[in-house]
Give the backbone structure.
Amino acid sequence: MLRRLYDWTLSLAASPHAAWALALVSFAESSFFPVPPDVLLIPMALARPDKAFFYAGVCTVSSVIGGLFGYAIGALLYDTLGTWIIQAYGYGENVEAFRHAYAAYGEWIILIKGLTPIPYKLVTITSGFAGYDFLWFTILSIITRGLRFYILAVLVNRFGAPAKEILERNLGLAAIILFATIVGGFVAFRYIF
């Protein structure tokens, strides 16, 4: 099954809908969806290294727009939708501590968390809830999400062919590492804050 999903993702790169699918996942991940866009970005960039930077741009723009949506959830809908999302991920009791950390370290939280496997949606929703400055949130989101996705594009351009061979030979291990990274991000977020 994993091989079929990987092959489907590679075939998606040749599809005229590739960028739209990537944009949708990237948008959703920044506001409510648990799967990071890297799951699509990496195989698509490996399949089409000539489009790696384009795909990174798509991820950056759609992730920032999704982040703005997540911010709106936190600022405008926290008592209903925002609380439900935070509770669904099991972080309800940590949100207040996270909000207070914004008073002193807001910009560093956004920059660092935007680069890590810690779910960005939790940062975006909490930024809105904490009332972090919207303009600075947007600027920092562009910086951190851009860095994250363009670093991947650079790595794919530099190590694309060998990386693709290694990934294809060790697809199961790569899936386990990706899953562990996602779960580790959620756990880290929960226990750091």
